[in-house]
Amino acid sequence: MNAKDYELRMLTERYVRGEGSPEERSSYEELMLTDDGVLEIYMQVLSELDAELPGMADPEAFAEQVVEHEQIKPYTSKAPLRNQERPKRWYERAIVHYAIAASITMLFLFTGAFDRLLPSEISGQVPLSDTPSYSEQWVEKTTGWLDRLLSR
Predict the structure, then answer these.
(1) What is the DSSP annotation of the chain?
(2) Per-domain boundaries in the chain
(3) 13, 46 in Cβ contact below 8 A?
(4) Whether the Cβ atoms of residue 112 and residue 139 lie closer than 8 Å to each other
(5) Other C-beta atoms within 10 Å of 108: how many?
(6) What's residue 74's pLDDT?
(7) Where are the membrane-spanning stretches (predicted)?
(8) Kindly report the CA angle at 28 between 18 and 67, in degrees rounded to 5?
(9) What values do phi and psi take at 146, rounded to 5?
C-alpha cells in the first residue's frame, strides 16, 4: 500500500467515524463523487468498520421522523404528466367517436346496407319485393315515434 492509498484510507476512516471539519467532509464527498477508487475505498472501510459504528435503537421510528420532517419535501417530477399538460382535442373525446359510429349506423340503415349483409340462402327464401327492408322498417318506426312525440 503506497502513501497515497494509506492517506485516502485514513481520510475515509475519519469521514466514516464523523471526524474532521465540515470543509474536510465536503471536500471528501466531492472526491468520492469524482473518483471511483475513493468510492471503492469508502465501501471497504464502511464494511470493515460496521461493527464499530453505533447502531440505531429504532430505525423505523427514525425513518418516520425523517419523512415527517417539515423541511423535507418529497421529490416532485419536473416533467409534467401528459394528461395534465393539455386538454383533450375534440377528436380525442369518446363522445365524438360515439357520434360518428351512430351516424355511420344511421347511414347504413337509411341506405339499406344491412339488407345486403343477409346471406343469399335467407334472402332467396323470402322475396325481397314482398316485405319492406329492415332499414325501411326502422325508418318507419323512428318517424312514427317522432311524429307521435312532436304531435303532443
Answers:
(1) --HHHHHHHHHHHHHHHT-S-HHHHHHHHHHHHH-HHHHHHHHHHHHHSTTTSPPPS-HHHHHHHHHH-TT------SSPPHHHHSPPPGGGSHHHHHHHHHHHHHHHHHHTTTGGGS-HHHHHHS-TTTS--HHHHHHHHHHHHHHHHHH-
(2) 3-51, 90-151
(3) no
(4) no
(5) 15
(6) 65
(7) 95-114
(8) 60
(9) -65, -40
Mean pLDDT, 10 residues at a time, the chain of 152 residues: 83 85 88 87 84 74 81 65 70 89 87 69 57 77 81 72
Residue environment code for 65-93, b if the CB has 16+ CB neighbours within 10 A, otherwise e? eeeeeeeeeeeeeeeeeeeeeeeeeeeee
Angle made by CA atoms 49, 47, 33, in degrees to the nearest 5 = 105
59 alpha-carbon distance from chain centroid: 32
Distance between CA atoms of residues 110 and 119, nearest Å: 20
| Nearest alpha carbon to residue 105 among 134, 132, 128, 126 | 134
Query: For position 143, what pLDDT does the model report?
Result: 83
Residue 65 cell numbers, joined: 421522523
d(CA 63, CA 67): 6
* Grid cell at residue 38: 475513493
